[in-house]
Design a protein that fits this description.
Number of strands: 13
CATH topology of the largest domain: TIM Barrel
Strand order of the largest sheet: 1-2-3-4-5-6-7-8
Number of helices: 18
CATH architecture of the largest domain: Alpha-Beta Barrel
Structural class: alpha/beta
Shape: globular
Helix content: 25-40%
CATH superfamily of the largest domain: Metal-dependent hydrolases
Distance between the termini: 64 Å
């Protein structure tokens, strides 16, 4: 929804002014709570609650901030009753709202799947009121592989002391991990607390995220500069894996903070907005869209997908992309016709790159002003992709120096790469030459199903395929064939 320029009160916020930060399209509040006055408190639960924290109340907050997406987190007040969260997802809109649930340790796979299908993307373990030897920590570890299989994450709201005691467990959690409220590092100690180092180690694994939320918690007081320093430190370490949240309706705070001010703290905590660019990926193959998004988002780009020319035409006015990657061969209207219609509608701002598996297309004349240098031939090469982005956005890519190698005292014996038979090798070689990503991954899965001894071979080639490293894949096949002769 459009960001307001008006001053008006919203429930559970000390301020009435809109934020100074103008949020981008599809901006998301990744941590907030909904309280339904019709739902009972869980037996034995503690904590404050407010009657003005319904989904309708929160929509006023969205109007003030300009955010359109949200992640509703089940508060401790409800125990394992996620009804208020699930209802809020429907009221706020399933297409733009997700939830984080709280569950019992004996939850079944069927129940997990039902939660996921209803919009739940993760499970939260909030433990500030239990001792460090409570079995809940083991329950979280046991649940992690099941969540990973379903594409869900584990959200940890633990005390700093619990984080230190369970440091080894945190590092071994076999799923994506989200750290609540920047780890709740204590007031007056902050990053000097050993919990900070535990969180940083987990953050460095590439599968962990930090919620820049609860910026008014564990602080010396407004303007929360001590919490801002912590947020800045995490954001510098992994800006692509930071998510922001209001923590509305702020029920654990003695003094009600200004919700808009929580958003404006990003202006000082994460000041470099120049690296944020919006890219629209248009391709009827979901796998191709996902792979491109997985390459671009870690670089700081905001990526949206469109599965057809029609979806592209609907997305461009709303999303206002700086760049568009356009596939040519799509059902309905193809890439050329989609570009023509964009031009006719006056959308000329975005640079467009053509993605085509046919190198012949690159030399053809066209009537939409796409030059040969704007063609990127599949299979995609990451270096070529980055070079095009650099030209269009005037970016200079900086490669960090690799850290010194740590040589273990007793290196583990690497798993052998056992290739499949020649028929499977030939089929893989042909798919790689075509750049047919879906076919490559399907063939690798088939090889793994037929004989588990090829597992390491499949893993290595699957990782390369997901990074578009097709030349490296062909080289592995060539060396293996030569060795077998």
């Amino acid at each position: 929804m459009p960001q307001s320029n008006l001053h008006f009160p919203v429930p559970n916020s000390a301020g009435t002014a809109p934020p100074r930060l103008r949020v981008p399209p599809l901006a998301c509040d990744c941590h907030m709570h909904i309280f339904d006055p019709q739902r009972p408190r869980a037996p034995g639960s503690t904590g404050s609650v407010t009657d003005q924290a319904t989904a309708a109340d929160y929509q006023q907050v969205q109007r003030l901030l300009g955010t359109t997406r949200a992640v509703v987190v089940t508060p401790r007040y409800y125990g394992t009753d996620n009804g208020a969260t699930l209802d809020a997802i429907q009221i706020l809109g399933r297409e733009r709202t997700r939830g984080v649930a709280v569950v019992a340790p004996d939850i079944s796979d069927r129940e997990l799947l039902a939660l996921r299908d209803a919009g739940i993307c993760g499970l939260r373990y909030t433990t500030p009121h239990v001792t460090a030897d409570n079995p809940v920590f083991g329950h979280a570890a046991a649940l992690a592989p099941r969540l990973d299989h379903l594409g869900m994450h584990l959200q940890l709201h633990w005390t700093p002391a619990q984080t230190v005691v369970h440091a080894d467990l945190i590092q071994k959690l076999a799923c994506t991990v989200v750290i609540d409220h920047m780890g709740r590092l204590p007031k007056g100690i902050g990053m000097a607390h050993p919990a900070y180092d535990v969180i940083r180690r987990r953050l460095d694994d590439g599968r962990s995220w930090i919620k820049l939320s609860g910026l008014y918690l564990d602080t010396e007081g407004a303007p929360y500069a001590d919490r801002g320093e912590i947020a800045t430190s995490f954001a510098r370490a992994a800006p692509e894996r930071m998510v922001w949240g209001t923590d509305w309706p702020h029920v654990v705070s003695e003094e009600q903070p200004d919700t808009a001010a929580m958003l404006d703290m990003l202006l000082t905590c994460v000041p470099d907005e120049s690296v944020r660019r919006r890219i629209l990926v248009v391709d009827n193959e979901k796998l191709d869209r996902d792979l491109l998004q997985n390459v671009l988002e870690p670089l700081g780009f905001v990526v949206e997908q469109a599965a057809s020319g029609y979806e592209c035409l609907a997305a461009v006015p709303r999303f206002a992309p700086h760049l568009i990657f356009m596939d040519l061969g799509m059902p309905g209207i193809d890439g050329w016709e989609t570009i023509r219609r964009l031009r006719q509608q006056g959308h000329n701002e975005a640079s467009i790159a053509i993605l085509s598996a046919n190198a012949y297309d690159k030399g053809l004349d066209n009537d939409v002003g796409v030059t040969p240098e704007d063609f990127i031939v599949k299979p995609l090469k990451v270096d070529e992709l980055l070079a095009w982005l650099g030209r269009k956005l005037d970016l200079e890519w900086v490669t960090a120096d690799a850290p010194p190698a740590i040589v273990p005292a007793a290196p583990a014996e690497p798993l052998p790469l056992l290739p499949p038979g020649e028929a499977d090798m030939a089929a893989l070689d042909e798919l790689i030459t075509l750049g047919y990503l879906r076919g490559i991954l399907s063939k690798l899965a088939e090889i793994e199903r037929q004989d588990a001894s090829h597992g390491e071979f499949v893993r290595v080639l699957r990782d390369l395929a997901r990074q578009f490293q097709f030349d490296a894949m062909k080289e592995i096949l060539r060396k293996m064939r030569d060795a077998s002769r």
